[in-house]
Specification:
Number of helices: 16
Structural class: alpha+beta
Distance between the termini: 17 Å
Strand content: 15-25%
Strand order of the largest sheet: 1-5-6-12-11-10-7-9-8
Radius of gyration: 23 Å
Largest sheet: 9 strands, mixed
Oligomer: single chain
Helix content: 40-55%
Shape: globular
Order of helices and strands: HEEHHEEHEEHEHHHHHHHEHHEEEHEH
Amino acid sequence: MVAESAREFEALEAQAATLLEMFRRAGYEQVAPSIIQPADIFLDQIGEAIRGRTYVFTDLAGEELCLRPDLTVPVSRLYLERHPLADVEARYCYNGPAFRFQPGRASLRHPREFRQAGIECFDVQDRDGADVEIIRLAVEAVSSAGLRASRLRFGDIALFYALIEALSLPERWRLKLRHYFWRPPAFHALLARLAKGERPDGDGPVAALAAALGAEDPVRAEELVANYAESKGFPLTGNRSLGEITERLLDHAADLRAEPLPKEVATVIDYYLAVQAPPQEAVDRIGMIAKGAGIDLGPALYTLARRFERLEESGIDLSTASFATEFGRDLEYYSGIVFQIEARQSDKASPIAGGGRYDGLLRSLGASAETPAVGAAIHTERLLASVGGAS
């Protein structure tokens, strides 16, 4: 990867100064979290899509570390270091490098090392107000840097969770669909199988072993798996530990015992995930789907509609915006509204900025309870290229 020129470096620094000054004026304290982070924290929180692209290494003391693939988790950890009870309202801004492996080859819009300038807002109880504040600041920030032609794309993780909770389906599949939601290909494969009334493969030695485990506790199940592997001469080596292999077999066993998913429920989920439209039209279509299914999405759908109303009241133009129920499934810590800002001349896979609500992240990082949190990050190289007309 070719190093940036001195001119590009100076342009990025000048752009970052503009962005950070705007954030500071809005009441955000500038922070600089560590570039090197504990690997286990990231691998647990960021999700499958980013987990496989994170640079992980072991230091001389044997500790597994990583180069941060984003800055939300490091800033959240910094917040908890300052406020262990997660009970203090705080606003932080930052600018710095992040690192992700790029399948194929790195490019100007998808480099292995890139800069993020962003904002994070913690423990603000007015969730509507905080969401609007973050989105408005992100839009104003890219505009202040010179981006004129842009569009907004929205999604809502909480709305999908509300749909799954409202539908009448076996608890096993409710949990499974929530888990697989973050992996779209696997999710759609699972849903397609369930919609056809197909059960997991119950034949063969693996299925027989899974069925034999039944509802055994994990410790006893591991013993049975180890004994089985030894009796068959299978070496327990490779990428997965005995515990991971056992966990997958127990999961398969639970699938075998579960009641089938009603086909009409799978159809409702399919209809829901097909929605992609301007914000208000999307809200209306989702409302019609819920009404047709005889379920109540009232609170979650009302919250989404209210967000859009308040965004427009704050001066955000939603005339070219879109809402997609499939959008926002890359980072698993998101829990509510998600958004991204796209340059008109670029595709949706290369957003200029993005973010959303992640109320459960701080608890996962050690807080005693769920804490309101929302943020946004700007990919500053893409912003600079778009402002300059580069592709």
